[in-house]
């Protein structure tokens, strides 16, 4: 066993543990007031411009930007393997997952192949319903509504309603 490889693996694991603790233990606690959570996230390196991030959210890294006036409810998941941008005055319901990473399909010995990541963009004024999953590389236009439980796998046009698995265009919004 190569000592140098083991040392690098241990150091990498410790860095990830420290990052996850700083991002996801103290600020994610229901005992931390929202204004203090905002300050902690800013100090750690998240580009947040709202006090309205509720407890038990998970951030897989600091590649996240959340606009002013946006509300992020309980238990949202930000993969953050690639950049996640959420606009101003959005409403993100509980349990929404922003997944930026994925794997290519590998051979029969290991079907989860190479790990890749693509950014996610959510425009201003969007409403993302409870338990929605937004997949890698998706852009959601300004003023969109995404119905609860939807799986968004392709871009959504501005001021439209999408719902379902996979999310489909329902109608244009005024």
Class by alpha and beta content: alpha/beta
Order of helices and strands: HHEEEEEEEEEEEEEEEEEE
What gap, in angstroms, lies between the N and C termini?
64 Å
Query: How does the overall form come out from the CA principal axes?
Result: flat
Number of helices: 2
CATH fold descriptor: UDP N-Acetylglucosamine Acyltransferase, domain 1
Cα-atom Rg, whole angstroms? 17 Å
- Strand percent estimate: 25-35%
- Overall helicity: 10-25%
Q: Give the total of domains.
A: 1
The CATH superfamily title: Hexapeptide repeat proteins
What ranges have pLDDT less than 50 throughout 5 or more consecutive residues? none
Number of β-strand runs:
18
In CATH's first tier, which class applies?
Mainly Beta
Report on the biggest sheet. 6 strands, mixed
Q: In CATH terms, what is the architecture?
A: 3 Solenoid
Order of strands across the biggest sheet? 4-7-12-15-17-18
Calculate the mean pLDDT score and round it.
94
Description:
This protein is of the alpha/beta class. It has one domain (3-172): UDP N-Acetylglucosamine Acyltransferase, domain 1. It is 19% helix and 29% strand. The protein is built from 2 helices and 18 strands. A hairpin with a 6-residue loop joins strand 9 (101-105) and strand 10. The longest helix is centred in the N-terminal third of the chain and has 22 residues, at 3-24. The protein is flat, with a radius of gyration of 17 Å. The mean pLDDT is 94.
